[in-house]
Protein: PiggyBac transposable element-derived protein domain-containing protein
Amino acid sequence: MSRKFLTTEEAFDYLMSLADESNDSDPEMIILPPDPDNVTDDEEIDDACTSIEHSHAIFDEKLQGETAGSIEILKEKNDAEFISTPKWTNRTPKFSSAPESFYNEHHQKITDKISGKSPLELFEMMAENMIAQAVEESNKYAGQKNNHDFCLKIDEFK
Structure:
């Protein structure tokens, strides 16, 4: 489990409170670098002095102010505390669907619109953007096959 702090003083106080607790593992303080986009002054921080055994070295005058990045305290968590088990039940799923009348009405509209049309008339009913894309791709294909004289237009395609 990690917890973030804005100042080293807050982090140090929390680190000392964790040291008072009787745990087998020692918490560690990590000072993360700032985002690369942030313009900051460089700070010299000794990475070897971030554990609880070196607490006297952590909180020196150099670190008492704001740090350039963010500060995290890492503490091992008790696995038994955070295990959650999902509740599974045997139920039939509920699916939402449109009413039957919607499908019948929609089907009837399409049937009325395309009934009695020839294949050519159905082809001409296609959306203009689909035709434009087919023309564009046909011209690309001709160029890839070294047929640079080929130039298809939308009117010719229809």
Q: What stands out?
A: Residues 107 and 123 are 19 Å apart (CA to CA). The two ends are 65 Å apart (CA to CA). The mean pLDDT is 72. Strands lie at 2-7, 28-31, 66-74.
